[in-house]
Amino acid sequence: MTSIQLVVFDMAGTTVQDNNEVQNCFCQAAEITGLKVDSERINSMMGWPKKLVFQTLWSEQIATDNPSYATQVEQSYRQFKQILEHHYLTQPVEPTAGCLELFHGLKQQQIKIALNTGFYRTVTNIILHRLGWDQGLNPDYVGSEDTIIQASVTPDEIYQHEGRPAPYMIQKAMYQLGIKDSKKVIHIGDTPVDLAAGMNANCLLSLAVTNGTHTREQLEKYPNHGLLNSLIELKNIIINL
Fold first, then answer.
1. What fold, for 6-17+94-239?
2. Mean pLDDT of 42-61
């Protein structure tokens, strides 16, 4: 039997299909609010806490000491949230290929499943509800062995909303689920900051899929324990540990 007790998954691009929809929401919000940025730059920031994206981009355009900086950030972020929430409320939301089969296999091995994300709680809840993954979660977004997932963590639940590449969302999931040894945890996402978060949390494996928002060529330059063509490959990795 494997020694793995927990797998922490990213959401959009890893367990939830993302065909550049989130990137497009960023681009729309930027255009509406006068923020000059191209899609390649935005894609490089996928996985970040979403407000931090706008803070960074506006700091590059007008600098943080500009009197209008805070207002511009808030306007862009507010516009982005409206666009993003409308998208996930009205458009199809589907798990990625092999995701549900993998979840089932992990449950059979008594391995717990947690989701973390760069999304804020409101849109995370929309996605979880659309997929039915919120069933049975308590008010702290912790489930049981009978629920589809056992925990959901967003930057909103972390001090000062600090998301990736900090390890805190992974560590919070571990704490909530009673897991003390990070070497019994696998983290998997689809962005450079996902890989960094898993490394910073000292997980046994920090992995990424290459069929999400980033290609193998984009990801292989960052420290990692493996790049997978899809989630389907994780099953054999766990079996062989």
1. Rossmann fold (3.40.50)
2. 92
